[in-house]
Each structure stands twice: as structure tokens, then as C-alpha cells.
Design brief:
With about 130 residues, the chain is α+β, with helices and mostly antiparallel strands. It has six helices and three strands, in the order ααααβαββα. A three-stranded antiparallel β-sheet has the order 1-3-2.
Length: about 130
């Protein structure tokens, strides 16, 4: 519904909460988790999947899209990376360096406010 209306899912959730409250209904959380329902399941496979989901800290039980916009800049040249990070610092973008295998080639911008600044300065990564 949120996607169809072009509004945040949280807004629709709040409307539904308010509507239930007005009607005196109590919210019942979904019980699609096998541990909560007592259903038989493959525990090692469940643990593996749970680990994958928890890798980004977000579990969702409905088919709505999870977005975490962020920017990455990768370059093996220290000078080029420094040009990028110095510029981002000047315009107020907070960034971090992500090292892979000990090599600090990746610059990450993930804070919401900083992603918004990047969008403002270079244009959004995604268009709807």
C-alpha cells in the first residue's frame, strides 16, 4: 500500500496502529517465525539464514523492499582517495575507510545525513 501511495511504510503502519486503537483492537504480531510457532524445522538451515539476515541488522517478514542507500568510492591511489575524502570533508560529508585484506581502498558514506549531502551535491544514486 505504501509503495502504491508513494509514502513511507512507517506512515502506513502508524495509520493502521491509530485505526486499530480507535476500534479498540489489540495488535497481534505475525507468528511466521518457526521458533515462536513451535513448528518443526531444520535448525542448522534456520541458523544459517538467520545469520545472513542479521548480517545487515534487518529482518522483514513481508515482501516490501529494504533500502539502505550509501556511497562507496574505491581507488588504489592514496592521492585520488585523499582528493575525494578531502572534498567530502569540506562539504560536511562524514565518511569512513573500509579496508579489505588490509588495503584501505574503499571509502564509505553511509550515514543518512551524509548520503543526503552526497545526493544534493552529485545527484541521487537511485530514481523512482
Amino acid at each position: 500500500m505504501a509503495e502504491r501511495l508513494g509514502i513511507p511504510r512507517g506512515t502506513v503502519g502508524w495509520w493502521r496502529h491509530e485505526d486499530r486503537e480507535r476500534r479498540g483492537e489489540t495488535y497481534v504480531a505475525p507468528t511466521d517465525c518457526p521458533i515462536r510457532t513451535g513448528r518443526q524445522f531444520d535448525l542448522p538451515a534456520y541458523a544459517y539464514l538467520l545469520g545472513l539476515y542479521l548480517g545487515d541488522g534487518h529482518i522483514i517478514s513481508v515482501p516490501k523492499r529494504y533500502e539502505y542507500p550509501r556511497y562507496f568510492f574505491t581507488n588504489t591511489s592514496d592521492d585520488i582517495r585523499r582528493l575525494c575524502t578531502d572534498t567530502m570533508t569540506r562539504v560536511g560529508v562524514r565518511w569512513t575507510v573500509l579496508a579489505r585484506g588490509g588495503d584501505p581502498f574503499n571509502v564509505s558514506v553511509a550515514r543518512k545525513e551524509s548520503v543526503a549531502l552526497m545526493d544534493a551535491h552529485i545527484g541521487p544514486k537511485h530514481w523512482r
